[in-house]
Design goal:
alpha+beta, Rossmann fold, Dna Ligase, domain 1, D-amino Acid Aminotransferase, Chain A, domain 1, 6 domains, five-stranded parallel sheet, 16 helices
């Protein structure tokens, strides 16, 4: 067994690897950027090395700095986690060339599966079913548009080197193809350094099924069953579960066998995931499930597989990298119960899921029997604009799917983060959606019902009354009794808006200045009412502000131009994604304060729209 490992990553996954390494007696080395100097993974590791400025391209993506840190600390191995350099074959080779152990697949396997077009061709040769589409070298926009016509709309444009939902666009009509292609190629070039794309037929009732595979250096390959990751928003997974609902034994056997063939086709070692797209219009059938891609690393959602199999996949990675055979044979692996994972993000669903940044003043995770929290965040930690905004993975295991849903819901409902916004309430609603409860979710559910799911819940009178009593001195409420009928109403500020709340309990000796009220995963700030407490710009003032620091990559309007509500004004690149800002109402661009290529700070005025007849 290796004795020390450097973790070339950050946040939750770095903490996850440290946890297993410590249990195995392996010394851990963390690396960190300026933004992560106080991060949990830095505090948790046995040793930590600073590797550069906050932007990932100047720190976590700098292979030479990571290798230098490994040499300086005497680390024997490098574990890349997921993201960053985890699927970079050149970096993997440089690790091996330096004489270190690479905790991951061989560089040739990464290369073989790294480009989606080449991987699909390889899978076809291995007898793995693939979706129809164009995988060629010709990247001329007019030619690609013609191929899309041949395939038939809707189509999916995907970066050949992509992953994590980046460099991917759904196109539903020929009129939208050119703009979608250009946006996809820009994002692919920025994220992966490769603008090339492929085009696939978009399945109308798609379900995302993936199989966890594992290989070792002794020729063994096994699967650890499937996961269903169909609940997605803009191609990014929201809630994952294992096993897949509606998967019968025959279909499971066929899909998992195909996944093992795929792994063997590239002589695979270590943890990998074979991703399939399924046409769920008639349930899960083996003849309607096709290979999409392989992720040659550990997945974000690996905990649900661990929960149903009782295996520690990070331990498997470390043992295989140390030259040991797989810890279990295929016949020794079985499914026990049901597991679900929800990704808790620092984002505001009510504002189009824009990432929310800042210092976390309150952090409380809900708990339930069979519950698990994987996180790289702690109270007083900073959510920065430089990296993925995931706060935690909330995981629940139960004997049945219904029990797993119930337990995950309990954990999410009691989760509270402040003042950073999160998607906890959105996740609670998603779990309660009839299609999710029935196990018939397809990848388009949030696209269809996302607006309703994103609306914050209405606080209950009981919750508000209980919170309000913490702001009211006893002298103001003589004779009040807990749980008595309301004896009066008082005015408060709820997130800056005036509300009247019935009071039906005891006041407090020393009332607080404010109270954080939580319910169904939502957090509200309750304050005593005061005129000066009402603040902020008036609704409809037309100010278009930068939701976060970023770079303006395109401006679609000019000053003085008439615009309609919802019309694209400009596109901002921030937190590795493109964000389109639109007109809040019909009007005229009265001011335009930015241009393409400009770097902007959070809440910078980008444009102002004035209401006028269009």
């Amino acid at each position: 067994m290796i004795r020390s490992v450097l973790i070339a990553n950050r946040g939750e996954i770095a903490c996850r690897i440290i946890r297993t390494a410590r249990r195995l007696g392996i010394r851990t080395v963390a690396v960190y950027s300026d933004a992560d100097a106080r991060a949990l993974h830095v505090r948790s590791a046995d040793e930590a090395v600073h590797i550069g400025p906050s932007p990932a391209r100047e720190s976590y993506l700098m292979g030479e700095k990571i290798l230098a840190a490994a040499r300086a600390t005497g680390a024997e191995a490098i574990h890349p986690g997921y993201g960053f350099l985890s699927e970079n074959a050149e970096f993997a080779q440089s690790v091996l060339d330096t004489g270190l152990v690479w905790v991951g697949p061989k560089p040739d396997s990464i290369t073989a599966m790294g480009l989606k077009d080449a991987a699909k061709k390889l899978m076809q040769q291995a007898g793995v079913p693939t979706t129809p589409g164009y995988l060629g070298e010709n990247q001329d926009p007019a030619f690609l548009a013609g191929e899309a016509e041949k395939i038939g709309y809707p189509v999916l444009i995907k970066a050949v080197a992509g992953g994590g939902g980046k460099g991917m666009r759904l196109v539903e009509s020929p009129e939208d193809f050119t703009d979608a292609l250009a946006s996809c190629q820009r994002e692919a070039a920025a994220s992966f350094g490769n603008p090339h794309v492929l085009i696939e037929k978009y399945i109308l009732s798609p379900r995302h099924i993936e199989v966890q595979v594992f290989g070792d250096g002794h020729g063994n390959v096994v699967h650890l069953f499937e996961r269903d990751c169909s609940l997605q928003r803009r191609h990014q997974k929201v809630i994952e579960e294992a096993p897949a609902p509606g998967m019968d034994a025959a279909t499971r056997a066929a899909v998992c066998a195909a996944a093992v063939r795929a792994a063997k086709a590239v002589d695979y070692e270590g943890a990998g995931t074979i991703e399939f797209i399924a046409d769920g219009s008639e349930g899960l059938r083996a003849d309607r499930i096709w290979f999409m891609e392989m992720n040659t690393r550990l997945q974000v959602e690996h905990p649900v597989t661990e929960e149903i199999t009782g295996q520690d996949l990070v331990e498997w990675q470390l043992r295989v990298a140390s030259g040991e055979p797989l810890p279990r044979r295929q016949e020794e692996l079985a499914i026990s119960g049901w597991a679900m994972e929800a990704r808790l993000y620092a984002e505001d669903p009510a504002k189009g899921f824009l990432p929310s940044i800042g210092r976390i003043q309150m952090l409380r995770f809900g708990s339930a029997r069979g519950g698990r929290i994987d996180t790289g965040i702690y109270e007083d930690a900073e959510v920065s604009p430089f990296y993925d905004p995931m706060i935690a993975k909330v995981i629940a295991h139960g004997s049945t799917r219904e029990q797993a849903i119930e337990r995950l819901g309990e954990m999410l409902e009691d989760t509270a983060v402040w003042p950073v916004k999160t998607n906890a309430a959105f996740l609670v609603k998603a779990l309660a959606h009839p299609q999710f409860a029935a196990g018939t979710v397809d990848t388009g559910l949030i696209g269809r019902d996302g607006e309703a799911l994103a609306q914050p819940p209405v606080p209950s009178d009981a919750m508000l009354a209980k919170a309000a009593m913490q702001l009211v001195p006893k002298s103001r409420v003589p004779g009040f009794r807990l749980n008595a009928e309301p004896h009066g109403r008082a005015r408060f500020l709820l997130d800056g808006e005036t509300v009247e709340i019935p009071l039906n309990g005891h006041g407090v000796e020393r009332p607080r200045e404010s109270v954080l009220a939580t319910e169904k995963g939502q957090v509200w700030l309750l304050e005593p009412w005061r005129k000066q407490g009402v603040h902020g710009a008036a609704a409809g003032d037309g100010a278009i502000l930068a939701p976060m620091p970023g770079r303006v990559i395109s401006v679609a309007v000019s000053e003085g131009q008439q615009v309609a509500k919802g019309q694209k004004l400009l596109t901002l690149e921030a937190m590795k994604m493109e964000h389109t800002l639109t007109a809040p109402f019909d009007g005229v661009v009265a001011e335009l304060k930015t241009s393409a290529g400009s770097q902007v700070q959070v809440e910078a005025l980008l444009a102002r729209i004035e209401e006028r007849d269009v």
